[in-house]
Predict the 3D structure of the following.
Amino acid sequence: MKKIFLLLFAAVSLSFFFICNSCKKTQHPTNPTPANYRILSYTKATMGVYPSDNYRFYYDGRNRVSEILFSNNDSNGIKVGAPISKRSVFYYTNDTIIKITTNVVNKKVLETDTFITNSSGQIITTFMAGHNNNYQYYGKLLARVSDTFKSYGMSLASARTYTSDNADLLSLNFDGILYATFPDSGLNPNPSIFDTDTILTPPLTALWNLYGTTVTTTTHNNIPLITPSAGLPYFQDKLTGYDIQYPMTITANDINGTIIKGSCTYPGGSYKNVFFGVYPDKNNRPGDFWQLGSFTTYGINLYQNAHLIKTISIPLHGTHVNYTIDGDSKITTAIVTYNDTVNNHYSQIIEVYNLQYETF
């Protein structure tokens, strides 16, 4: 299933949603949540699975997220690998946000992330555990995202483009190109105790290994050395026609058989084209499915679409979101249904988000 992609993703967008106007009935959007409300906490429960995940938010004097506490009551280890409790603290300095996540019990640092913002407060770069993202915007809306995965000085990068209409994101599209960059250093095939690294002798040969239903290898020869006017020399290659669903690993060696240090993997888990639908009669507000994921990860909402996200559609997989909105225009419940059809086998997962708010 592609549930992880549909969530994380982190990294998703809103699609064209047609309104039936055959009866000429005017639709009036519901009002957004009043400005003096903010999310205090929410719980996420998967139907038929125990336990639930719980998130509690704290804010500084400028109404920025300063801390997030996560916990679940997974005392029996039902969610394998899920921490019982962790704490994320946000530090703000000029255009930089540093997020440090620790285990509440043993105080061990689990992850340190860095986010860079522009003059409008939008996140333009993220550095997260060997994975960098760069974001570009068209006004409020995301326009382009570049993903870069790094290992041993190597990197694999892709770029995807958003389309939009009427202040709503419509689709996320991948051009099929994966870019690779190698440092000019390798493992000495006959090293001494003090000489394990060596300069590579161009040109390089690169092996692109696609891990789909079977492993497919594409070989690129005669990759030249690039010597920039500033900085260290490097090698660069690209692969076209990449199916972004599946992981890709790349290795390389020079004409003497010296191999580059390590390898780099692009994890896949995405689709070339993803389409999105919105509720045209419901203005966006805290509690939107996208907002929840972004807010919990970055402390900032990346998705400034005009209306609430309703559907996320990819081949054989679909996500549908239903919201319960109270008399104050607050989203109190979001029910997210994931539908998958793989090899003629249909499955469904339902997650329920219950939200609580506070005034300030």
In short: Helices lie at 3-7, 289-298. Residues 51 and 76 are 9 Å apart (CA to CA). The chain has two helices and 26 strands. Residues 1-26 have pLDDT under 50 and may be disordered.
